[in-house]
Amino acid sequence: MTSLLCVRNLSLSYPSPRKRWRRSAPVVALQDVSFDLAAGERLGLLGMSGSGKSSLLRCLLALERPQAGHIHYQGRAVAPGSIAALRWYRRAAQYVPQDPIASLEPRMNVAQLVAEPLLRLGGDGDIARRTEEALESVGLDHRFLSRRPDELSGGQAQRVAIARAIATRPALLLTDEPVSGLDMTIRAQVIDVLRELSNTHGTAIVMVSHDVSIIAGLCQRAMVMEQGRLVEDRPTPELLKTPQHPHTRALLEAAPPLVTAA
Ligand SMILES: Nc1ncnc2c1ncn2[C@@H]1O[C@H](COP(=O)(O)OP(=O)(O)OP(=O)(O)O)[C@@H](O)[C@H]1O
């Protein structure tokens, strides 16, 4: 497989809030994080709350600038460098956020929301058909096309956010807890859609989840973070069967028993 993303020695700290007359030490979110992601690979990111998963995702999305290290996409620099000059990267990488309702423009209807990235990226062919296909693949039929975000449940809004991201068939999909608000049937359906997208179009996926079973069901590889560091990075079945790091073992012991495995 060809390397898509190359992440080397990434470190990120947030300035600490000012307490009265003095500042305390910055909050270290990422420390010396390095890994590669191959085209079409599906990578799960596990870790306790506050371990740095969302910070890493924000760096991969070029929303946060790391203080040290670099990120290259197909050999081109995503970081360091100017965020404003990353238009080319916004075409390649799509994002499914954790909070879909906040991310969907309230004045647009579902058809416009899903078509918007296709139009923005200069989509060719039948935009209406691709919009409907993307919505159908997440279990929403044509009756939803004219609804606005405030007329959707949390789960339906999440599915619109996923349809929006996958309609463009991106080379890289970055997701933060993409199925956490969905019931079990829809959750399984959305996981199938993501797997199908990846298998058919070679989309690489980086997925943050607290749910080990979701990562086991979708991702060939899993990484575990602890206090901003990567402590384990292995094929998911191996990591689940023989966790090496004490933190991974603690994480798996705290998780509910797995129903399925990749
Ligand atoms: N904007 C911010 N300003 C200051 N500190 C931050 C900010 N965002 C995150 N942090 C801190 O950085 C560290 C990593 O946070 P991050 O959100 O990346 O963890 P996480 O693993 O995604 O957690 P969760 O699973 O709870 O979402 C934490 O100590 C957090 O408090």
Task: Explain the overall architecture.
The chain has a 6-stranded mixed beta sheet, sandwiched between helices. The protein has a 4-stranded antiparallel beta sheet with strand order 4-1-6-7, covered by helices on one side. Strands 2-3 form a two-stranded antiparallel ribbon. It is an alpha/beta fold and 262 residues long. Strand 9, helix 7 and strand 10 form a beta-alpha-beta unit. It has 10 helices and 12 strands. The mean pLDDT is 87. It has a domain at 43-62 and 93-254: P-loop containing nucleotide triphosphate hydrolases (Rossmann fold, 3-Layer(aba) Sandwich). The radius of gyration is 19 Å and the shape is globular. Adenosine-5'-triphosphate (ATP) binds at residues 14, 27, 29, 47, 49-55.
**Given the structure, what is the number of helices?**
10
Radius of gyration: 19 Å
Ligands, deduplicated: adenosine-5'-triphosphate
Number of strands: 12
Major sheet characteristics = 6 strands, mixed
Q: What is the CATH topology classification name of the domain at 43-62 and 93-254?
A: Rossmann fold
- Average pLDDT, rounded to a whole number, is 87
Please state the second-level CATH architecture of the domain at 43-62 and 93-254.
3-Layer(aba) Sandwich
Percent of residues in beta strands = 25-35%
Please name the fourth-level CATH homologous superfamily of the domain at 43-62 and 93-254: P-loop containing nucleotide triphosphate hydrolases
State the helical fraction: 25-40%
Strand order of the largest sheet: 8-9-10-5-11-12
Give the overall shape. Answer: globular
Class of the domain at 43-62 and 93-254, according to the CATH hierarchy? Alpha Beta
Protein name: ABC transporter ATP-binding protein
Pfam families: ABC_tran
Domain ABC transporter: 7-252
Organism: Halomonas dongshanensis
